[in-house]
TrEMBL record:
The keyword Nucleotide-binding does not apply. One of its GO terms (molecular function) is DNA binding. SMART domains: DM3, THAP. InterPro entries: THAP_Znf, THAP_Znf_sf. Signal peptide: none annotated. Keywords: DNA-binding, Metal-binding, Zinc, Zinc-finger. PROSITE patterns: ZF_THAP (PS50950). The lineage of its organism: Eukaryota, Metazoa, Spiralia, Lophotrochozoa, Platyhelminthes. This is THAP-type domain-containing protein. It holds the Pfam family THAP. SUPFAM superfamilies: Glucocorticoid receptor-like (DNA-binding domain). Residues 15-114 form the THAP-type domain.
């Protein structure tokens, strides 16, 4: 049986199409950041230790990790430092018309930027 805090956490629906940080409205359709990079959504890591740190920092501790993954919760790139990404140059991409530099979130990266704690608001999004 869930206690009152857990019941409150489960009563809110989050969307896999937007950032799950409490005061963030980031989506894949958000305008690019000041550096011109598009906003990207990152799923919770497969590594449980890192995923548990994300859950704690984002104040989602009442929500089981399995539930976070099942719902496909994501954190947007606004919450990561540029140093949290690796740069790589893939093979030429015909769709984009040439070489493009891609970046990947480094293993063990933690979302620490632009977080407002404690959780003051909750975004309610229907499943």
């Amino acid at each position: 049986m869930l206690d009152a805090v857990e019941a409150e956490a489960h009563s809110f629906a989050f969307s896999p199409r937007r950032c799950c940080a409490s005061t963030c409205d980031g989506t894949a359709l958000s305008p690019p950041g000041p550096d011109g990079a598009p906003v990207r959504l990152h799923p919770f890591p497969r590594d449980d230790a890192t995923a548990l740190r994300w859950r704690s920092i984002l104040e989602l501790t009442p929500v089981p990790l399995e539930e976070i993954r099942r719902r496909g919760l994501k954190v947007c790139s606004r919450h990561f430092d540029p140093a949290d990404y690796t740069q790589s140059r893939p093979a030429p991409v015909a769709v984009r018309g040439g070489n493009s530099v891609t970046s990947r979130l480094k293993q063990g990266a933690i979302p620490l930027l632009e977080l407002v704690l404690p959780r003051l608001t909750r975004i309610i999004v229907n499943n």
